[in-house]
Amino acid sequence: MSLHNIRLEVMLTLEKNIETFVDKFLIAPEKIWQPTDFLPNSQSEDFLEEVKEIRGLSKEMNDDFWVVLVGDTITEEALPTYESWLLDVQGISQHQGENGGQDNGWAKWIRSWTGEENRHGDVLNKYLYLSGRVNMREVEITTQHLISDGFDIGTARDPYKNFVYTSFQELATYVSHNNVAKIARKNGHKMLAKMSKIIAGDEMRHHLAYTEFVRQIFQHDPSEMMLAFQHMMKHKIVMPAMHLRHSGEDKGSLFDQFSVVAQRAGVYTGFDYVDIIKKLNATWEIDKITGLTAEAEKARDYLMKLPERMYRITERIVIPDTKYNFKWMNPLT
């Protein structure tokens, strides 16, 4: 049987439990938080006072913090790109049946997951707008570019590689939002801290779902899953932020500057990247997986040694204190 057919068979096997995954890892729209739960109520008499308070607190936070929050928001708002990419993955079908009728179980998962993720960009965008610290038109232009440019995450239509990517990316966004929450709380920005913390909670729940998919694939097809994991780590996970750009600039022109600012702010660092690899190795217990081919054994050896090797490289990186001019930022008045 070809690798293509084996992957399809494994996806069909996992799909039999999709309702269980949906019930365990996702929450119904009526029960989960919605953006308005964390924003000033525009129908309240206190609305303008609450907005003034947000604007006042926002002036206390430095530009680096807001640049990172803008990057996080744009990453969340590029959701149409992720959904269209995942709906094209092998084993995920939007048209099950002879007459193109119903989605298959995986498509239901992707749509439900997208529905949850959609709230993140929604609430953060509104908060940025109310803060008064950000040039929203430039933010909106960058968001539109990111969606219309598209980006290649290096997985093709391979479900194994895609689930490694989502397992990594969901944990990375958890780390980023959680660190934003800590910084906001430390600076008395309680509403933003609460909002970021609960977004981080969603990301962790989604991370647990995707790591569970990979864990189950390891049980059915260990060697190919190990090789897919190695492939993604060798080529590095391509973050959506790698494609950020201002109006009139080239695709990806902002990434190096944004990366420096994120590390300088302590929101997402090279050490976080290494830590995520270590966590994935431990979560999937790759040291205990049996029945591997000789090639997959080599892949496992590479993955086990990778965090230490990357940690040593990361230790040598010097973060510059250069002041960058992001068009997203409004000057303080």
UniProtKB/TrEMBL annotation:
Binding site for Fe cation 2: 117, 170, 203, 206
An annotated Gene Ontology molecular function: metal ion binding
Cofactor annotation comment: Binds 2 iron ions per subunit.
Residues binding Fe cation 1: 76, 117, 120, 203
Source species taxonomy: Bacteria, Pseudomonadati, Bacteroidota, Flavobacteriia, Flavobacteriales
Descriptive protein name: Acyl-[acyl-carrier-protein] desaturase
Cofactor: Fe(2+); Fe cation
GO BP of this protein: fatty acid biosynthetic process
Protein family according to the UniProt entry: Belongs to the fatty acid desaturase type 2 family.
Assembly mode: Homodimer.
InterPro entries listed in its UniProt record: Fatty_acid_desaturase-2, Ferritin-like_SF, RNR-like
Keywords linked to the UniProt accession: Fatty acid biosynthesis, Fatty acid metabolism, Iron, Lipid biosynthesis, Lipid metabolism, Metal-binding, Oxidoreductase
